[in-house]
Specification:
CATH class: Alpha Beta
CATH architecture: 3-Layer(aba) Sandwich
Order of helices and strands: HHEHHHEHEEEHEHEHHH
Strand order of the largest sheet: 1-2-3-7-6
Shape: globular
Helix content: 40-55%
CATH superfamily: Thiamin diphosphate (ThDP)-binding fold, Pyr/PP domains
Largest sheet: 5 strands, parallel
Number of helices: 11
Strand content: 5-15%
Radius of gyration: 19 Å
Length: 315
C-alpha cells in the first residue's frame, strides 16, 4: 500500500512537472482493496487490474520499474514506450494489459479461464477489477452471466467509490448494495469496508478460496471513496463534502498504519524506515528510466502486442 501510494505521488509530481505526457491515474483511497486483491492471488492466477490498481499490481509481482518505464515512455518498458500510463501488462505472468472500456476485461479473463480449462490446467482463478460504473454496462452483464453459467473461477472486485468519473451512484443504480446484483446471476456475493485492509484481506481470501474450490464466480463489492480526481487533470470538485467527512472518506493507508501500531506489529520508527526505503527505491527507478531511450518512430514496427517481440505470451 505504501509503495503504491508513494509511486502514485511520484507520478503525479512528474505529471505536474511536464515529464509525463498524457493522463496520470492514481489510486489514493483504494490501495487497501487493491493490495488485498494482489496478495490473495497465486503467481499461477490471472489478474486484470484497473487504472487505480498500482497496489494490486505490485502485490501480484509487477516490478516498480515496469510502471515507471511505461509512464515515462521508455522503449525498454513492457509496452515499448507506446503507451503512456496504465495499459501495460505481461500476459505470460498472468498480468493482463488493461482495456479502458468499462467492463471489457471481464470477458478477457473469462477467455483465459476457458483456455486453461480446455488445456486441462486446473487450480487457478482469475480476477477482474472494476468500478461501480462498469456494473451498469452490457459487457458486465454478458461476461458475468457467461461465467456463472460455465462456473468459471472468476472473482469480480468492484471498487464502489461512489462516482463513475463524476456520475454519482444515485444516477447509476437503484439497489441499496451493489452486492445484491449477485443474486440475479446465481453467484457468490461479498461486501466489505474498502478502507479497512484487514477486512479486505479476509474478504478477498474468502472469495478467492470459494472460486478456487469450484463454487463459481464471486462478486466482491468494496465501499470506499476515491480521495483524488478521476485523473490528475480532474479536481474532483463534484464529490459531496458529506461523503468526504463520512467513514468512506477515511484514508485506508492511515487506517492500516494505525492498525500496525495498535497491534504492535510495527512502531512509528519502523513506518518511517519503510517510507524512506520506498522513496529511495522509487527515486532510483526514475533515475534509471530517465536515462533510457524513447522509441524510435522510424525503427518501431508499430505492430500489435501479439508480435515477435512478445512471443513469450504464446508459450
Amino acid at each position: 500500500m505504501l509503495k503504491a501510494r508513494l509511486l502514485d505521488d511520484k507520478f503525479a509530481a512528474l505529471y505536474r512537472a511536464g515529464k509525463i505526457h498524457g493522463g496520470v491515474f492514481i489510486g489514493k483511497g483504494q490501495e487497501a482493496l487493491s493490495a488485498a486483491t494482489g496478495v490473495s492471488l497465486k503467481k499461477t492466477d490471472v489478474f486484470a487490474p484497473l487504472i487505480r490498481d498500482a497496489a494490486g499490481r505490485l502485490a501480484f509481482g509487477e516490478p516498480i520499474i515496469d510502471a515507471v518505464r511505461t509512464y515515462l515512455g521508455s522503449a525498454l518498458g513492457p509496452m515499448r514506450g507506446r503507451d503512456g500510463n496504465v495499459h501495460r501488462g505481461r500476459p505470460q505472468t498472468g498480468l493482463l494489459p488493461m482495456i479502458s472500456h468499462l467492463g471489457a476485461m471481464i470477458s478477457v479473463v473469462n477467455g483465459v479461464l476457458f483456455a486453461r480449462r480446455m488445456k486441462g490446467i486446473s487450480g487457478s482463478v482469475g480476477v477482474a477489477s472494476l468500478g461501480e460504473g462498469a456494473t451498469s454496462t452490457g459487457a458486465f452483464h454478458e461476461a458475468l452471466n457467461q461465467a456463472a453459467v460455465e462456473k468459471l473461477p472468476l472473482i469480480l472486485v468492484v471498487a464502489n467509490n461512489h462516482y463513475a468519473y463524476s456520475t454519482p451512484n444515485s444516477r447509476q443504480f437503484a439497489c441499496a448494495d451493489l452486492a445484491e446484483k449477485a443474486v440475479g446471476y446465481g453467484v457468490g456475493s461479498h461486501s466489505v469496508d474498502g478502507t479497512d485492509l484487514a477486512a479486505c484481506l479476509a474478504t478477498l481470501t474468502e472469495a478467492v478460496g470459494n472460486a478456487r474450490a469450484g463454487h463459481g464466480p464471486q462478486l466482491v463489492v468494496a465501499n470506499l471513496l476515491r480521495l483524488c480526481g478521476h485523473g490528475e487533470h480532474d479536481d474532483a470538485s463534484y464529490i459531496d463534502p458529506k461523503l468526504k467527512k463520512s467513514p468512506l472518506g477515511r484514508d485506508c493507508l492511515k487506517v492500516a498504519e494505525d492498525f500496525l501500531v495498535e497491534e504492535k506489529i510495527a512502531d512509528a520508527a519502523q513506518l518511517a524506515v519503510w517510507r524512506s526505503e520506498t522513496i529511495r527505491e522509487i527515486e532510483d527507478a526514475v533515475a534509471i528510466v530517465q536515462r533510457e531511450p524513447a522509441p524510435d518512430p522510424f525503427a518501431e514496427k508499430w505492430c500489435a502486442i501479439a508480435s515477435v517481440h512478445l512471443g513469450e505470451t504464446h508459450e
